[in-house]
Write a structure and sequence with these properties.
Largest sheet: none
Region (Disordered): 1-38, 324-347
Transmembrane segments: 59-79, 127-153, 160-181, 187-207, 238-260, 295-314
Pfam family, one: OppC_N
Shape: elongated
CATH class: Mainly Alpha
Protein name: ABC transporter permease
Helix content: 55-70%
Radius of gyration: 29 Å
Number of helices: 13
Strand content: under 5%
Membrane topology: Multi-pass membrane protein
CATH superfamily: MetI-like
Oligomer: single chain
CATH architecture: Orthogonal Bundle
Distance between the termini: 51 Å
Length: 347
């Protein structure tokens, strides 16, 4: 190559003046950006799920309200030996002010013997949340295991597990929970196990359907071909791809557990004295609805708030894991097309 050719090349590529951006071809692509789109931002699968969840306005409001309720319940009267910021406890009967209506000293009022109702309601919220989340964990584990095993192995084992699931489903849920709750004799741990033993069926069916659709995929067939065992395939390949179904159903199970515990406590089969739950407070003071309504409304409003918040969070998680869902207030948009001028509409 001669000097004339080198000078011609230098003249063809003008140098960028100071303070001006380099040409597009010279700018490096964003880290992780797909080829051909240097300025695009790349998200991982988890990042996309989180981004869609954060854009769900209902789920965000519900999450904030639920966090406030949980913090208030566990910091106000404390937990066990850890004291809280509220200066009254659930066991002391204070001097009753009038008929026990809400005052500055007792914002939620007082019960029939003078106990501070704010402390009682916060303790009931602690117990109800413990039961709800404990039942959610147990039912999620049982339902996931049953559904995954039935969907992967199919055949005789699938038929046995699904018939057991059908038996649990056809028996009225409240009747089974009442019988099992009666045997717990007010023990919170046994009550959680009893409720968790009846709320796993819906998740088992959903996980089974998901595993049935995944077990014939190429990555599962490849894992079998190299000699991977069934347990490893289920844990490492199938369940991670069904995590969306599991998480969404787990949140909905928590809401169902709150309402079921409330029903059992209202019927006298749930939490027993000296401990309290939101359901037992409603049951104990149902007769005061017309004369002292604050004894009924405070636990009822908290049950409603927690159940609605968990349902909205579940709705947001469902929309986040399934981009086809559009109930979160943001409409799925298709590709934009340029509008043709009116004079060229027929072209």
């Amino acid at each position: 190559m001669n000097d004339h050719a080198l000078r011609a090349d230098d003249d063809a590529a003008p140098a960028a003046s100071p303070g001006t951006a380099p040409p597009a071809a010279a700018r490096p692509a964003a880290a992780g950006a797909p080829p051909g789109d240097p300025g695009a931002r790349h998200y991982t699968a988890g990042g996309l799920v989180l981004r869609r969840f954060l854009r769900h306005r209902g789920a965000m409001v519900a999450t904030a309200v639920l966090v406030v309720v949980v913090l208030a319940a566990f910091t106000s009267i404390g937990v066990g030996p850890v004291p809280g910021w509220w200066d009254k406890d659930v066991a002391t009967a204070y001097d009753k002010l009038g008929d026990g209506a809400p005052t500055w000293e007792h914002p939620f009022g007082q019960d029939t013997i003078g106990k501070d109702y704010l402390a009682l309601v916060m303790r009931g919220t602690q117990v109800s949340l413990f039961i709800a989340f404990g039942v959610g964990v147990i039912s999620t584990v049982v339902g996931t295991v049953v559904g995954a095993v039935a969907g992967y192995f199919r055949g005789f084992l699938d038929a046995i597990l699904m018939r057991v699931t059908d038996v649990v489903i056809i028996v009225p849920l409240l009747a089974i929970a009442a019988v099992l709750g009666r045997t717990s004799d007010g023990n919170l741990g046994l009550l959680v196990l009893a409720l968790g033993a009846v709320l796993w069926t819906s998740l088992a069916r959903l996980v089974r359907a998901e595993v049935l659709s995944l077990r014939e995929r190429d990555f599962v067939l490849a894992a079998r071909a190299v000699g991977t065992g069934p347990a490893r395939i289920i844990l490492r390949h199938l369940l991670p791809n069904a995590v969306g179904v599991v998480i969404v159903q787990a949140t909905l199970t928590i809401a169902v557990a709150i309402l079921l515990e409330t029903s059992l406590s209202f019927l006298g089969f749930g939490v027993q004295r000296p401990d309290v739950s939101l359901g037992s407070l409603i049951s104990e003071y149902e007769g005061a609805f017309s004369t002292r309504p604050w004894l009924f409304w405070w636990p009822g409003l908290l049950i409603l708030a927690v159940a609605l918040c968990v349902n909205f969070i579940g709705d947001g998680l469902r929309d986040a894991f399934d981009p086809r869902q559009t109930s979160g207030g943001t409409r799925a948009r298709g590709p934009r097309t340029a509008a043709l001028p009116s004079g060229k509409a027929g072209l």
